[in-house]
Amino acid sequence: MTQRVGPGEDTAKSTAESRADAPAQAEVEHRPGGLSSAEVAERVARGEVNNVPVRSSRSAVDIVRANVFTRFNAIIGVLWVIMLIVAPIQDSLFGFVIIANTGIGIVQELRAKKTLDSLAVIGEAKPKVRRDGAATEVPTSQIVLGDCVELGPGDKVVVDGVVAESDSLEVDESLLTGEADPVVKHPGDQVMSGSFVVAGGGAFTATKVGREAYAAQLAEEASRFTLVHSELRSGISTILKYVTWMMVPTAIGLILSQLVVKESDLRGSIARTVGGIVPMIPEGLVLLTSVAFAIGVVRLGRRQCLVQELPAIEGLARVDVVCLDKTGTLTEGGMDVTELRTLNGADEGYVRTVLGALGESDPRPNASLQAIIDAYPDGGEWRCTQALPFSSARKYSGAAFSERDGESSAWLLGAPDVLLADGDPVLAETDGLNEKGLRVLLLARVDGELDAPGIAERAEAAALVVLEQRLRPDASDTLAYFADQRVAAKVISGDNAVSVGAVAGKLGLAGAEDTVDARKLPAETEEMAARLDEHTVFGRVTPQQKRSMVGALQSRGHTVAMTGDGVNDVLALKDADIGVSMGSGSEATKAVAQIVLLNNSFATLPHVVAEGRRVIGNITRVATLFLVKTVYSVLLAVLVVIAGIEYPFLPRHLTLLSTLTIGVPAFFLALAPNKERAKPQFVKRVMRYAVPGGVVAAAATFLTYQLARSHYSGPDALGAETSAATLTLFLVSIWVLAIIARPYTWWRIALVLTMGGAFLVVLAVPWLQHFFALRLVGTTMPWLAVGIAAAGAAAVELAWRWVERRFPV
Fold it and tell me: Could you give the CA distance from residue 317 to residue 307 in angstroms, rounded to a whole number?
């Protein structure tokens, strides 16, 4: 499988090396008008179609396999079969619970798959392909060998090919080679799938489609539903590995002690042995994690948010810095021309004609040029002789014309502070407009070739074009949300810093008045990071600088999210911990982002953050519940082996306890709202509570069991001893649940009380007493069991408070 590479990686290759490594291109004839429908059908029949499966989720078979064929399901399955043979059905309830849990996990993941697949279709790239002499949009999977595919700024190159037409076409191949500098493409040059257009336009002929393409797997990797590579899941895997190590020798010792050391009936010994092994397995922990993630995907899907990589939910919950591109994020895509100011005695009518011709010269105008086209339509009297498309690195575009009287002229349109020298009086006028949050472009006349070195230095100002940007109505509330959640917002834009600061100030962003021109930022990572921590708004940022700024923030331990919608954001999106793209953004940004906001609503981000915090915070809570059970189960087994006595519980007892103190409560707690920012060191945070909680629960239960053994006698003594021990273990466990459920709300209190009430019902109803083999005998021992449980609950409370102070995370 082709893997993404980046700067500094051993696998990074130069463009030349990449071309050398790629197999030879197929000889395919270029047809300017494209293939005919008959030719397309013929090539589809021959299998010459781009049939690489681009999935947004695992297949249904993979989901079923992942949920059914697990290590712990295998262990529990064997034990369940044994119990079905040797014991009453009551002692086999744990097997039915596992079947139900597995079914729930499968159903929830299939729901998530359905949601993701439907959203992926909405967000799927549809390149323009010429067929039957006309350009038409087709899904990537329907491109065939020999198709003529059109390219424009922001478009992904979806299959390998050879350039047939080039209009100042510049392609970024950094996702393949690690080289950030755009490559100018001429007719006859090769283009590779996975690269994208940063400037200009053109068309290429598809010479490799499907799995033969050089980087055919890139888009698939960028949009695949994954359940791996997250701190949460790796932490759970680490915990399960240690649990397995503890469980195996303990289970062997328990089996030997029950079958050899204690000479009781074989069936009873097997039942109690299984009763000791089953609770050691935190079987519901993986299930609840999968369910919580899957439900998160479904909830976000309802808000038109496509999660291309599932751990992105977790990652965004850990974010403490979010970098925002102004255009398309804080502002809407469209703009309006509000004023035209002529300079140096230029004729306004002539300037309008120039602007109209400039608009006509670019077949794929950006938002600024589109506003100019709308305001000054072209009269069609001038002929374009040379065009220079807009580039984020240059900050300007241009065109040369043959005018109606035969005269020639060349013009640049771009950032005034780039085209004019420092100190030029026009810049003071520009600054006044920028301070009002307006965007200003300079129209300047030049002599010479547009792509000549230093051409901008010879520009003669002709007019200022004043544009008003449309603020997103939801941007202010979203920025306020991030401030409330202690997530620092950094506005990083290629526009003038003063203008960007004015826009951010209108939205209420703190620190917006203290703007920084990125051209004056230090290049050293440490110094840049210090400036980034001190300031909020940065203007005139180049695409490479955006990438460097993300890296500088990460060097200080920040978890960085980057939002954007243009090709100038791609490098930063790729390097950020979490990349967020707008659905209307370029295909390149959507390819590298982990999250795509299909409704283009910046206001969706708080919901994504909240969903991530809910998942991470709640899984941390319920993981403690599961692992307390594992710890006390292992310790009880060890104590029983050392003491050489019968294991106190049958499987039915621990199934009841697990259901009431862990299973049912954990499901509700895992799906509850949780706004706390996710914290690192998941394993340490969970185990520092699980170990003392499990130790106290095991000690209190074993003490009650030993006292009951000395208190009761006769043929039914074991049942009475088990009931007393079960009472103590339940009360300590319900207190652990009560601690985990904090801070209390009405439903959390009701949840704990309901679980306690259900246990009382079992003790009070005769047929339930018989079914679960629980009957409290006398009053002395039951009340002693309650007293020991109360002491154990107090010990858990004190131990957890001490651990929190002594071992902070």
Answer: 13
Question: Amino acid identity, residue 549?
Answer: M
Q: For residue 777, what pLDDT is reported? A: 85
Instruction: Tell me the C-alpha distance between 504 and 519, whole Å.
Output: 20
- Which is the catalytic residue, given 172, 325, 362, 565? 325
Cα distance between residue 511 and residue 534, in whole Å: 9
Asked if 160 and 214 count as a contact pair (C-beta separation under 8 A), the reply is yes
Residue 53 has pLDDT above 60, yes or no: no
User: Could you give the CA distance from residue 218 to residue 208 in angstroms, rounded to a whole number?
Assistant: 15
pLDDT at 705: 92
* pLDDT tens digit sequence for 548-583: 999 999 999 898 989 887 767 777 888 888 888 887
If residue 184 lies in a helix (H) or strand (E), which one and from where to where?
A: strand 183-184
Q: Is the pLDDT of residue 116 over 70?
A: no
> Would you state the structure tokens that stand for residue 657, as one six-digit string?
């306890």
Per-residue pLDDT reduced to its tens digit, 17-36: 433 344 444 456 777 788 88
Q: Which two tokens stand for residue 759?
A: 């246990």
> Is the preceding omega at residue 153 within 30 degrees of 0, hence cis?
no
Tell me, rounded to whole angstroms, the distance of Cα 665 from its chain centroid.
Answer: 27
* Contacts (Cβ under 8 Å, ≥6 apart) of 625: 661, 662, 665, 666, 669, 736, 737, 740
pLDDT (tens digit, 9 = 90+) per residue, 497-546? 888 888 888 888 888 888 888 888 888 989 999 999 999 999 888 878 88
pLDDT tens-digit map of 55-82: 555 677 877 887 787 777 777 788 788 7
3-state secondary structure of 89: helix
Element (H, E) at 279: none
CA-CA-CA-CA dihedral for 281, 285, 286, 291, to nearest 10:
150
How far CA 608 is from CA of 41, 298, 587, 602, in Å, comes to 43, 12, 22, 11
Residue 88 and residue 734: Cα distance in Å, rounded? 27
CB atoms within 10 A of CB 740: 24
Cβ atoms of 158 and 50 within 8 Å: the answer is yes
The sign of the torsion formed by the CA atoms of 137, 140, 146, 151 equals positive
| Cα dihedral sign, 474-476-480-486 | positive
pLDDT tens-place string over residues 442-499 = 999 988 888 787 888 888 889 999 988 778 888 888 888 888 888 899 998 888 888 8
- 8 Å CB contact between 497 and 536: no
Q: How many residues does the chain have?
A: 809
Q: Which amino acid is at 58?
A: R
Supply the Cα-derived Rg of the chain in whole angstroms: 33
Determine whether 369 is exposed, middle or buried from the number of CB atoms within 10 Å of its CB (0-12, 13-18, 19+): buried
Q: Is the pLDDT of residue 637 over 90?
A: no
Q: Closest by alpha carbon to 737, among 755, 715, 759, 725?
A: 755
| Integer Cα distance of 92 and 75 in angstroms | 14
User: What Cα–Cα distance (Å) separates residue 707 from each residue in 694, 696, 713?
Assistant: 20, 17, 12
Based on the residue annotation, tell me whether 362 is a catalytic residue of this protein: no
Alpha-carbon distances of 97 from 80, 104, 584, 769, 775, rounded to whole Å? 11, 11, 46, 20, 24
Structure tokens at 550: 């993300």
- Any idea which residue has 């010990």 for tokens? 795
